[in-house]
Design goal:
The chain is of the alpha+beta class. 48% of the residues lie in helices and 24% in strands. It has 3 helices and 5 strands; from the N terminus they run ββββαααβ.
Amino acid sequence: MKLRQGVAMTTTEYGAVLLDERSGSYWQLNECGTVVVEALAQGRGRDAAVERLLEEYDVGRAEAEADVAELTGRLVEAELLAP
């Protein structure tokens, strides 16, 4: 998975913002969401995103996997991520 062409990501002090340059819509991500999207944008995949969450936050594997699946699913649905 990776960010679709035409989607820009900018980090903020609270996380990040994804801007769909095609539609003008944007998504605001919290810090955890930013960790996930950064891993995906680097071409590292869902498993790497889960590992990054486990390294950086006090969260169990099942919760991290569910969070990554939910976020990536919503971003694919919004056509911000390309599978």
